[in-house]
Design goal:
The structure is a homodimer of 368-residue chains. The first copy, chain A, is an alpha/beta fold and 368 residues long. In chain A, 36% of the residues lie in helices and 12% in strands.
Chain lengths: 368, 368
Amino acid sequence: MNIHVAARPAATAEAASRLAIADCDIHPRLKSVKQLYPWLSQRWQEHLATFGTTYRQPWQKGPAYPKAQPQASRRDAWPPGGGIPGSDLGFMTAQHLDPNNVALGILNPLQTGQGTQNIDLSAAMCRATNEWQVAEWTGKDSRLRASVVVPYEDGPAAAREIEHWASHPHFAQVLLLSRTAEPLGHRRYWPIYEAAAAAGLPVAVHAFGYGGWPISAGGWGSFYIEEMVGHAQAAEAVVASLVLEGVFARVPALRVVMVEGGSAWAAALAWRMDKHWKKLRQEVPELSMAPSEYMRRHVWYTTQPIEEPEPRRHLAETIEWIGWDRILFATDYPHWDFDDPAQALPLRLTEAQRRGLFLENARTLYRA
Amino acid sequence: MNIHVAARPAATAEAASRLAIADCDIHPRLKSVKQLYPWLSQRWQEHLATFGTTYRQPWQKGPAYPKAQPQASRRDAWPPGGGIPGSDLGFMTAQHLDPNNVALGILNPLQTGQGTQNIDLSAAMCRATNEWQVAEWTGKDSRLRASVVVPYEDGPAAAREIEHWASHPHFAQVLLLSRTAEPLGHRRYWPIYEAAAAAGLPVAVHAFGYGGWPISAGGWGSFYIEEMVGHAQAAEAVVASLVLEGVFARVPALRVVMVEGGSAWAAALAWRMDKHWKKLRQEVPELSMAPSEYMRRHVWYTTQPIEEPEPRRHLAETIEWIGWDRILFATDYPHWDFDDPAQALPLRLTEAQRRGLFLENARTLYRA
């Protein structure tokens, strides 16, 4: 199977003159889980060697990504010096950060123990991953900011992890995944939102993860492409749950960033929520304004994978409803479905829209 | 709990001069399951009396609709002569068909044995329901057309039911529900699509039903409103499954109508499918064109519950992408969230758009 991935231009001398950008979805990887050992107690080192990690994970039966793209990565992203894509800061700098003029890069590590069923192991791995991000990434390149990964199925433990890093200047946000044991608006997760808001950190909800449920209300699909499309519906369900459970009403300072789940659905979701809320508002008395208002005030969206409608003006229309200040550029480096900043937004933008979307919206949100 | 439902104007003398409309989602109800007995064998009559029906149904633990709206219905829809809303053709005529100038009404009966776990019972009840529609509804009012309800979890049995009614002029479409045991593109359901296409009948997929799965990829939500919003995501998953499984590629004459699941999401879904299909098309080699093309050619949408965005022009923009010829007006009579044709489409329309959306699109689709 030969997956169609367009060749990308080599880094050129012009790169330095390009507009500086923020990349709000970069995936750093461990070379090996042993990189976490300096921050894992003997107990957890032995546990990992003896038991490994256990997830609610149908992916254990097959690849989470197309097999033709090992590590879900661009074929050209394997570091020449060895190791897997995303594991080598020097190569990431040469291949992505420098040529694409990344002025602010948000790290979203994914294989971190989040969602693993042993909650104490999850907490230990998340702590070690956060330490590793500082030691190996943000401490070595000031353009990068880390995400506080948390053992999200245990709200109080996750809140403690956020509090631990709250005053550390290298952390830009808290990171959750979108498919959890219960919808993310449920109260088991509220300590996360309260701690993040108290720390002044946005909460990013990245696509993927797994809570035991199929991505479709009709059960298990057949195709990888169906899962990739389904992440948008999963993201819609996350936003609906956060709004309707009153999370934003209860935690007014909370800012949420939906990552890799798309954004073109936002308006349709808001309209449907508003329509039903007008008649059913007594069911959710904590809401003091329409669901769409909570979305407009509290939710941001990253671009990748950016929709490419024909005619293209429809893309601008969807962003116009969301707000040009709420869209954050992201590449998903080093993953195979990387959006190239030179080509990713096929729209005529005003200079203000371009600067906001590619850089300033992220600087404002992350205070960076 | 006092649910907000706007008062509706009484039928007036002007009604007759109003534009004639098609209503593509009217729900007729049995006064009692005994109304089906003329078409049920002694065996199934005894079965119903002894065992009842068994569904994959969490709703058995609580109301499927707000309890304050018994039978999910408008409070003014209870027939003065007795019986439940939707069960009395005379009252439906006086309250809805005549004053709203319904020239074509598509019946979508919902409590029909579809999805019941005993497949033979499901088939028997569907047959009886189809007979009942002709005897009690379409045979008495020529404005009405029936839907062939089928035991959809058994594809061959469902196809036989469609073939039985294929040449009967009172049937406008085949009716499925959106939440099934597997995604509706799976091959167990293909005999339904083949039989419907052969009979020249569109397949309507109405929101609701239940296959055992939560409506969200993150598990079980808390609120009725969350379920109502989630029907849109369930509808998205149905369309994705039909497109990506190659159902439209294999059955080129198939026409699908998405009912009560919204339509404003259609463009966002199409764009996300296209984006991933460009890179992953080898996974779905049956597709000979982009997923969005299959949607444009094969899918129609009913309006209710119509989105009411601010500013309203966004609604026109979403319809523009879908195609003005693909939107079918529907009220959901007698349900509590009925859309009034006098108020339901808060848009400035051209005369051609108005005639298409309120009447001609349905006449063309249903050849009625």
